[in-house]
Design goal:
2 domains
């Protein structure tokens, strides 16, 4: 399709712009001897940037390979075809990753331009691309496997990200930590990384093939009929009990009584949440994976190095960004897909009641699930003196978390109102969040590295106020207790009064921008619901 070539053009232009602006201005002569190190940092930045982008794009290409068949109700016809299950899985994987492979290989001529600067050999570049391809194949296989276990692409996508992002972070830390040991990194890139990728990919390939040979999820239009009581009795690990606390906060029990008079049926239906109709596997996996990852991060950033408590808040925010859109991105598009939106709009229920019910239902689930990760912060506040004495900063952390929950839910609901398919709405939400929250941070890092003390870098630094990551990391955790630690004449743990108030001002700008953004999104949805033709299911 034409958009594939547009994506390739944007990808190439972006990478070429990075190389162009990062090209050493004081080294305009080529050095073919390879004795200088001018290009080492540039190639590392180029490769890590591609690695992160590929990690983020692989699930979006591959997660719907099998789950999309279930949503289109063609899964059973695919299984009834004479094609072998291994051929189906291999074809799905190759088809999903071919375009991503084209994007990666098309960037090879750009990175080759950096070799004459010296410091990086051709073999290091080829080894880096070998490790990148092996990682992408692994990430794609994980996403295809998730699509095999879930009947909804949104569920497969969020679980894929929860599994892939820790692996991607390990890869980034590995490559960065060995930047000074080029030969060791080269050997590991061509031996250990492909070996680990093979050990993950091959078992998953045969597991997915076996599920397609003896499929457990056929008979109901490709949707597995799940009895919650049976699932709870057979579940391994976490079990969700909808009638107990705290499970009822995000999974309220089914209604067994008549609704009271004058109750809003749409609001009640949304708050009872139909997202559990296909079982609770996605929720249980999300909770267990997030808790497992939170243990080492909690130990390091809250108890060992409390001055870096903001990094743990970044992890909590990232988790909410991953799961928040899943529960809201299909709020309106699912009505379109079920062809019930016109019926909903012709009821006597006001647009505000419709919006409020749909927003609050998704916001409740995402905020409660993310809120489980805040318990370590409460524990650290009680046990760690450095954090307990910075109760104002801890309160700011809580505000950042709440504003992020509100923004992800509101933005996903806005995209659901704007687009016609749930998958499109979900991908659009993730893309906007990445551009809004991560692009300013990346631009600031690039400017501080290659253009320090320039006007453009100063502007990029100011734009980071829109990102909860930059705002959380910027808030200082200082030694001492009370307001005395911010004495203007002293500096404790590198934090003085000026830097503290600068961070608080940046926090105020972030809070103001986020609230204004949410008001703008709500205003747009109100306008679209008032103009009912805009959200009607038959609008072309």
């Amino acid at each position: 399709m034409p958009r594939a070539f547009v994506l390739l053009l944007i990808y190439q232009v972006a990478l070429a712009a990075v190389v162009y602006f990062a090209w050493p201005k004081d080294n305009i002569r080529l050095d073919l001897t390879g004795t200088t190190g001018s290009s080492s940092q540039l190639v590392d930045l180029f490769f890590l940037g591609q690695y992160i982008l590929a990690s983020l794009m692989a699930p979006s290409f591959a997660a719907g390979a099998i789950s999309g068949e279930k949503e289109r109700m063609t899964y059973e016809m695919l299984l009834a075809s004479p094609i072998k299950p291994q051929s189906i899985v291999l074809g799905k994987l190759v088809a999903a990753l071919t375009h991503l492979a084209i994007l990666i290989f098309a960037s090879l001529p750009i990175v080759m331009l950096c070799l004459p600067l010296g410091g990086v050999s051709l073999y290091e570049v080829l080894a880096a691309y070998l490790a990148l391809i092996a990682s992408v194949i692994t990430f794609g296989m994980i996403s295809v496997a998730c699509g095999s276990f879930f009947s909804r692409t949104s569920s497969a996508l969020v679980v894929s990200y929860l599994l892939i992002l820790p692996l991607a972070l390990i890869g980034v830390l590995f490559w960065s930590s060995l930047s000074s040991f080029g030969e060791t990194r080269l050997k590991l890139a061509i031996t250990v990384i492909p070996g680990i990728a093979t050990a993950i990919t091959i078992p998953l390939f045969y597991v997915v093939s076996a599920r397609m040979l003896y499929p457990p999820d056929v008979g109901s239009e490709g949707k597995e009929v799940v009895d919650l009581e049976t699932e709870a009795s057979n579940a391994v690990g976490l079990v969700i009990q909808r009638d107990q606390f705290p499970d009822r906060l995000f999974a309220p029990p089914l209604r067994e009584t008549l609704m009271p008079d004058n109750a809003n049926p749409i609001y009640d239906k949304e708050m009872r949440s139909e997202i559990f109709g296909q079982g609770t596997l996605m929720l249980r996996l999300a909770i267990q994976i997030s808790m497992l990852l939170a243990i080492p991060m909690m130990a390091v950033f809250l108890f060992v190095v409390p001055a870096r408590a903001g990094w743990y808040i970044c992890y909590v925010v990232l988790f909410n960004i991953l799961i928040g859109p899943v529960f809201s991105a299909g709020s309106v598009t699912s009505e379109r897909e079920r062809q019930t939106l016109d019926l909903l709009l012709t009821t006597t229920i006001g647009w505000w009641e419709i919006l409020w019910g749909k927003l609050l239902s998704g916001l409740r689930v995402s905020s409660v699930l993310s809120g489980f990760l805040l318990f370590p912060v409460v524990l650290a506040t009680l046990l760690v003196p450095e954090i307990r004495s910075n109760i104002i900063v801890v309160a700011c952390y809580l505000v950042i978390f709440l504003l992020t929950c509100l923004t992800t839910a509101t933005l996903a609901l806005f995209c659901s109102t704007l687009f016609r398919k749930t998958t499109t709405s979900l991908i659009a939400t993730y893309s906007i969040i990445l551009l809004l929250y991560l692009l300013p941070v990346a631009a600031n890092y690039f400017g501080q590295t290659y253009f320090p003390a320039t006007r453009g870098t100063e502007i990029a630094s100011q734009l980071t106020i829109v990102s909860p990551f930059a705002t959380a990391v910027d808030l200082p955790i200082a030694a001492g207790s009370g307001w005395t630690r911010f004495d203007a004449t002293a500096s404790l743990s590198g934090v003085d009064s000026a830097s503290f108030w600068r961070s608080m001002i940046n926090f105020g700008w972030y809070a103001g921008f986020t609230l204004a953004l949410n008001c703008l999104l709500m205003g747009g949805m109100i306008w679209m619901f008032n103009s009912r033709w805009r959200v009607a299911s038959m609008t072309e």
